[in-house]
Amino acid sequence: MADIAVSVGDQVYAEEGADPVGAVRKVHADELVVFIEGTGDLTVPAEAVAAVHDGKVVLDAASLSPELRRAIASAHQAERPGL
Predict the structure, then answer these.
(1) Residue of 29, 47, 49, 40 lying closest to 67 (CA atoms)
(2) Which residues sit opposite 57 in a β-bridge?
(3) Which of 7, 65, 6, 70 has its CA nearest to residue 38?
(4) What is the C-alpha separation between 4 and 71, in angstroms, rounded?
(5) How many angstroms separate the CA atoms of 34 and 76, rounded?
């Protein structure tokens, strides 16, 4: 991931075109620490990053751990419509 420009604060997406599920908190050479809404900080391995562009980090769902998949699936469950 050293050749990919990921920055703290970049939004994280489960797939291209979807709503963001969190944000990058820390950047390391082989992993990212991301804050997932409703869960908190989790580690994403570099191989699970499908794309990085325009301040966005798009994940490769097939490369995510079950814990990350569950966290992403529940990221927007606590939101209340109309607020």
Answers:
(1) 40
(2) 12, 52
(3) 70
(4) 24
(5) 15
Distance of alpha carbon 61 from alpha carbon 51, whole angstroms: 12
| Rounded Cα–Cα distance for residues 55 and 70 (Å) | 24
Instruction: Compute how many other C-beta atoms are within 10 angstroms of the C-beta atom of residue 48.
Output: 18
Chain-centroid distance, C-alpha 73? 12
Q: The pTM is what?
A: 0.84
Structure token digits, residue 79 = 């939101």
Phi-psi region of 4 (alpha: psi -120 to 50; beta: other; left: phi over 0): beta
pLDDT digits (tens, 9 = 90+) for 36-74: 988 999 999 999 999 999 999 999 989 999 999 999 998
